[in-house]
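Quick start: load a record and inspect it. Here is MFS transporter:
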Amino acid sequence: MGQPLNNQPLPQLNVFSFSGVQMRTFHITWMTFFVCFFGWFGIAPLMPAIRADLGLTKPQVGNTIIAAVSATIFARLIIGKLCDSWGPRKTYTALLLIGSLPVMLIGLAHDYTSFLLFRLAIGVIGASFVITQFHTSAMFAPSIKGTANAVAGGWGNLGGGITQLAMPLIMATIIGFGFVKADAWRLAMIVPGLMMLVMAFIYWKYTKDTPAGNYDEINRTAAAKSSVPFWQACADVRVWALAIAYACCFGMEITFDGVAALYFFDNFHMEETEAGFWAMLFGFMNIFARAVGGIVADKIGQKYGMRGKGILLASMLLLEGLGILLFAQSGNLTMAIVSMLTFAMFLKMANGGTYAIVPFINPKAVGVISGVVGAGGNVGGMLMGFLFKSQSISYGQAFMYIGGIVAVVGLLLFLVNFGRTVTIEQVETELQTA
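Running the structure step on this input writes:
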């Protein structure tokens, strides 16, 4: 406690400030996550062109959607542990360098198999979320963690929305220079890969693992870094309840990011850029919706504790499920857009609400638990992907099934008591000894 304030986690979030290692790291972290999402889902709005170029069938398109989220499941488990032991700065830099390669090289794919393998490799980038939440948690005090995590996560997820419009525009620009569409989508993917390389340099040079410095600078010992074994951290039923909840909110988000452009393109007979615009609106909600979830969760947590946060999360999931059911039955574009924005609001608030709980489950194993819960989101996305590859199930029917499942999970989550009688001071003490 004798250290100056600038070496301690911040007790407030001033998003207009760039001073101090905490706020500098906060802004670089969410911008890096934004770029990672840009690379992760940059291919999605180009799928109408890619489908035609490679002659992909509906099941094959579905398999590529599944591949995009499957690799992330295992990557998030590994990355979470690396954050605890190696530090977020080194971990993020390495992930950016490695992940940029399949993003830039996917243009070399000339058949279904090679394209599928590249999509699988690109999926590793999704583990960036765990580092984002871990690093943000390290920079802010317990009373503001939920808000800080939600804002960083939401603004980063915004990349998944912006890419829906940006990548078709990049492809159209390349076509304007005289390239055919079959070559333009390949060249377009070089752009997000280069952006990732730039962020790797910035992350390494301008961030720190903790407010007090990097792990090796503050002599953080291996024992302290991994004081809680993986399986011990995961023995808490609340971890798995959060993983299932995240499967229903973030899992749906990445699934929708993958199929939205195709859904609007096929159902409402649009051009790629127009379909990308409507798909972008879904992701654009992240500019505020996830943050609202974290802010509300923090306010409720201060008054009603962890139990209150749990009830908020359950409510958001229930409303999300009902909104998806409404979207699945929309018969025109106006209804589809209104219902999409409705369920998007509750979905993204649930994302923020989930990670307003995660850092408090076990403050000595934030990386591990962030990884497990984050991986749960991708398991949800993978399972939902199987519905969209089926020849016998339409996209509308798939949304119906998903909406029903999410609503039921929301109801069941009311039964989980996330309450743990811990004061802010106790959590701060645990974090200082972690």
